[in-house]
Amino acid sequence: MLARYGSLAVFLLLVVGASYIATGFSATEWYYGLVTRPGWTPPAWLFGSAWAFAWLALALSGWQIWLTGHYSRLTALGGWFALLVLAIGWSALFFGLHRPGWAWVEVSVLLALTAFCMQRFRTISAQAARLLGVFLLWVLFLWSWTLSVWTLNGGFLSRFL
């Protein structure tokens, strides 16, 4: 029992650590106040709550994969760990460096990797894949939101719209 819930603690700590690093690139008032955002941007409290829910789903999906004892779980968890790193990268690019175009490219990779991991997870644990689906939905939202912000602020697509 200790091993089971100890492993849950490890996955939660990994995700909390990643989210702590990501929040270090928080939207400063001057940048977030100046950047043009789409009208459907959620309020800050909802944005943060959605991130927390997505992080929790990510932690639980990884934990479920770990619990299976499946021979390919370590390979699948390598992809899971890459999701953590890419999620931090989006925050660093968008909020830290103020580069919504690069953040959109990066979140596109995150979206593709999340879909790939979800497919891999499905072969190991359907429950883990469903949990990762929650994270996928959040990343899909981030993908469209980041593209909108980039476009509204003179990004590549603004030339065509």
**Using only CA atoms, what is the Rg?**
17 Å
Number of strands: 0
**How many DSSP H or I helices?**
6
Q: Roughly what fraction of the amino acids lie in strands?
A: under 5%
Low-confidence stretches: none
The SS-based structural class is mainly alpha
- Label the overall shape: elongated
Q: Sketch the major β-sheet.
A: none
Counting copies of identical and different chains, the oligomeric state is single chain
Helix content: over 70%
The average pLDDT is 92
How far apart are the termini?
A: 57 Å
Helices and strands, in order, run as: HHHHHH
Could you please describe the fold and organization of this structure?
Helices cover 80% and strands 0% of the residues. By secondary structure, it is mostly helical. Helix 1 packs parallel to helix 4. The N and C termini lie far apart (57 Å). The mean pLDDT is 92.
Per-chain topology:
Layout: H1 2-23, H2 29-34, H3 44-68, H4 73-96, H5 100-124, H6 126-152
Helix pairs in contact: 1-3, 1-4, 3-4, 3-6, 4-5, 5-6
